[in-house]
Amino acid sequence: MTLTAPTTTGPRAVSPPPALRRAWRKASPYAYLAPFFTLFAAFGLFPLLYTAFVSLYRVELQTPGEMEWRGLGNYTALLGDSYFWTALRNTFTIGVLSTVPQLVMALGLAHLLNYRLRGRTFFRTAMLLPYATSVAAATLVFAQLFGRDFGLVNVVLGLVGIDPVDWQTGTVASQVAVSTIVIWRWTGYNALIYLAGMQSIPRELYEAAEMDGASRWRQFWHVTLPGLRPTIVFTVVVSTIGATQLFGEPLLFEGSVSGGISHQYQTLGLYLYEQGWGFFHLGRAAAIAWVMFLLILLVVGANALIVRRRSRKEAGR
User: CA–CA separation, 211 vs 19, rounded Å?
Assistant: First the structure.
């Protein structure tokens, strides 16, 4: 007679009902994205909406709990303030002086780095060094270079017979100096973005253009630039946003919140800081922040409209 041991089986896993599985399948993507949206709502959306709320009141930094309703009074006060229009004009001027040469130089550097060169890795790494440098360190060095009496730039100009330039007092000179700092810091960053875009263009297009007898310049004009159009639009938009928010370079260039003795290079960012933390008008500063936000939306919308019209025009050919 043989004895068999009784077989024991563990508890069977109970699967959730189909309705619950379907509900989890639909809700799981939102659950994975919930941390991002929570942080965005706490540190992005709420400050934006609260700034809009504060911009409708008279609020002083010393007494933030005492709020007096003004409606659009802070915005109308900005329109009547000549310093606001000076800051707006300076922001536009410095933005153009820094963005246009910066992107043109970045495009040329990326075109050179796109060819087979010795030490390409070294040059590509060196392109990011200015971007990795602290804004404060870079601005302080350039402030010494653009010194009126002992600055290296004026020394070089003196060698070719040009009188010393007062880079911190003259309107055009100070804006050129601040724009130079921005160009130095961001050209390499944009060059690497353009280089990545160039490497995504199929090599067959260059080979076909070369077989047709196109020179390198024609290849760049008729193959590289059309292939880089989305990348160029991206860099233009990002550079425009950065120019609108320009703050560190003009602040540290002379160490003045007013942007020089005659506000000759005060940007909207400096004007906001001066109103909020210099004159303690938090309501006015919040209104300036929202004006800057609306200007950025306007510029981005105009860029998108231009690109869309151009795309439709080319599609209709």
Answer: 62
Print the domain residue range for 65. Answer: 44-80+281-317
- As to burial, measured by CB atoms within 10 angstroms (0-12 exposed, 13-18 middle, 19+ buried), residue 186 is buried
Phi, psi of 67 (to 5 degrees): -120, 130
User: Does 140 lie in the same domain as 213?
Assistant: yes
Instruction: Specify whether 305 is located in the same domain as 235.
Output: no
Q: Same structural domain for residues 244 and 121?
A: yes
Beta bridge mates, 67: 59
- Return the biggest CA–CA distance within the chain: 120
Tell me the HSE value of 198 on the side-chain side, using a 13 A CA sphere: 23
> How far is residue 238's CA from residue 79's CA, in Å, rounded to a whole number?
27
127 pLDDT above the threshold of 60: yes
Give residue-wise pLDDT tens across range 242-279. Answer: 998 899 899 999 888 888 888 999 999 999 999 999 89
Q: Is the pLDDT of residue 202 over 80?
A: yes
CA distance 142 to 130: 12
In DSSP terms, 60 is beta-bridged to 281
How far apart are the C-alpha atoms of 287 and 52, rounded to whole Å? 7
| 68: β partners | 58
151 shares its domain with 197? yes
Residues 168 and 233 in one domain: yes
Domain identity same for 174 and 70 = no
Examine the domain organization and report whether 195 and 296 are in the same domain: no
